[in-house]
Amino acid sequence: MQQLRSDNAIWDDGEWISWDEINEQIQYKEWRAKYPNADLSLVSIFENLIGTAEDYHLHTGKHLQVYGDIGELYGAITHGIKLHRNYAQGSDGRLGNDLVEVKTITPFKSNDRVTLNLRRNFSMVFLVKITSDFEVRGKLIPRKALPRVKGDKLVLEWADIGAERGEP
Description:
By secondary structure, the protein is an alpha+beta fold. Helices cover 30% and strands 27% of the residues.
């Protein structure tokens, strides 16, 4: 452990406080302002994961297969979606009493569409878009607000689904 002294900490109220601790508290305050209901431990994972995906793409021109996880984490930190275990059947998480299906539009897609399987058990859809600049946005849509279709597949277009709601 590093010794705290005047070159790496400040003396406050009878104790040394490291600059790392101060910077961490500032970071947590910024995250709390941006994601008021988030589990802050998930925010750092989300930011690290999106940063890693972006760095990998910049260095290799390829994409990591992490965008679905990024979309789910984004739903957890922006809306408080409680995620199910991996590969759970039916939906990706729960928001109160609602089962939520998370669909992610990846930065390498040539269009802003996803296909939704209407046979799955969900009452809300969280549509996430990761842009080519690795910015992340989301839209939470009640199932009853989805367009009616014949059959069990629905193609959702980002631009056709109302405004972003509940965004920080």
